[in-house]
Amino acid sequence: MKYNIEKINEIGKLLAEVVEEALKIEGGEAALIGDVEMALRESMLKIGNSALQCFLENADGEVKAEIECTCGGRLKYQRRRKATIWSVFDKVVYQRAYYAGCTCGQGCAPVDQCYGIEPGKVTAGLARLLALIGVNHAFDEGRKSLKEFLLFEVSENTVRAETQKMGELQRQADADLVKATQSENCLQKREQSQALVPDVLYGSIDAAKVRVEPRDEKEKAVENREKWRDLKVGCWYEGEIVPKSQHSARQKDKAQREGVVLRAKNQKYFCDIEKAGQFGKLFWATGCAVGADRARVLVFICDGAVWIWNLIVHYYQNAIQIVDWYHAADRLKRIADEAFATTDERLAWREKVTEDLWQGRVELVIEACQTLAKKSELARQSLAYYGDNIERMRYAQFRAAGYFIGSGIIESGCKQIVTHRLKISGAQWNLDGAILTAKARAAWLSDSWQKLVTARSLLPLTA
Ligand SMILES: [Zn+2]
Predict the structure, then answer these.
(1) How far is the CA of 107 from the centre of ligand 1 (A)?
(2) What is the domain extent for residue 354?
(3) How far, in Å, from the CA of 103 to the mean position of ligand 1?
(4) Residue 28: pLDDT above 70?
């Protein structure tokens, strides 16, 4: 936006005088720069508050005797009526023309309608900040940080409500997407569109436990225990090669071992607390949105839970399936620990078998487990694990093709959504609160936050 710089400089000069005066009155010791900054910020908050009030009071223009009601009837001018909003400049009270007297019983303030204001509520400008804090911090913790930035108090409940409103918008967007991708018509239309389809696209799914409190006393009595629910999380992403000059110490090691180092980009997370079948619909719908069904190569990397592979096979039969390398390799370590008494024996077995796995010689890994089956229960159980996943563990082939072989992206997603937000101290959830906060956070992590901010600013008009 372009502003009249001369006028702004004029205001700046005035403000400097105001602050200088105030600091003088405060008196005593010379003010330090931090004091000056704080005095400026406090004054600017007051200026913003008064400017927003003026702006809205000027916005009425000429008052008319009558206007048209949304129902088609007529509304008569009543008087200028007071309204209150909670904005980024704190509570603002303003007066605007108010019309009423239609047969439908509704009244109207054109200024509120024009700017998408809900009197008595938080404005879209403040809402986006509250929600941003709420997806990244426990609500009460976030409230304290916010006060430092805004210079006025907002309640924990307001932070929670605005965060979950963003989650509600995401839930609505998810539901709309699921509905749209169930319709032949919509899929056909998309088929004809020229939208960019990724060459190689990755997908991963995982789940993490969230503790959900009973909703009320009644529910508590029926289920007198804590309830841990699975938050299912999925991610679509692409890969790119990390240039040598940007390698971290760890990546340098990796580059020596594996040749190239990949990193993920364009991560799109989706999540829900739902049964696998219902979550599958969201999986398919979000996949359509990123062109999963049209990518040249589609690769899934997962830790091996059966319900996950079932969903993948159901929706994307021809995709490449990879068991996360770290899960498959870590199991060998645990087998060695269980089967051998000495560190030397453990290391020797593990090194050899891990190399076989790395080279994709899964049959040799199975043989090695077979020979330990009598000594180790885990080795015996692992016969099925490696046996059922032979084709998903051809790591040499996958590496040669340049694919990721680790599911680090989805594990990081679970960590960021669940460990770093839903499970942090001070967090307590009912079912809806957990789902909405998770969905809002997933949007934040996916760079689709701006869509929610835009949708939030349209809220009163669509309500
Ligand atoms: Zn009406």
Answers:
(1) 8
(2) 327-393
(3) 6
(4) no
The domain tally of the chain equals 1
Task: Give the rounded distance of the alpha carbon of 258 from its chain centre.
Answer: 32
In DSSP terms, 68 is beta-bridged to 74
- Does some domain include residue 96? no
Q: How far is the CA of 110 from the centre of ligand 1 (A)?
A: 14
Distance 86 CA to ligand 1 centre (A): 28
From the CA of 72, how far away is ligand 1's center (Å)?
Answer: 6
CA atoms within 13 A on the CB side of 76: 4
Mapped onto helix, strand or coil, the DSSP state of residue 294 is coil
Q: Give which of 296, 53, 95 is closest to 198, Cα–Cα.
A: 296
CA of 108 to the centre of ligand 1 (A): 9
With respect to residue 89, please indicate whether it lies within any of the assigned structural domains: no
> Could you tell me how many residues make up the chain?
463
Specify the pLDDT at position 458: 86
In a domain, 83, yes or no: no
Sign of the CA dihedral running 274, 275, 280, 283: positive
| Residue 219 in this model has a pLDDT that exceeds 80 | no
What whole-number distance in Å separates Cα of residue 370 and Cα of residue 347? 18
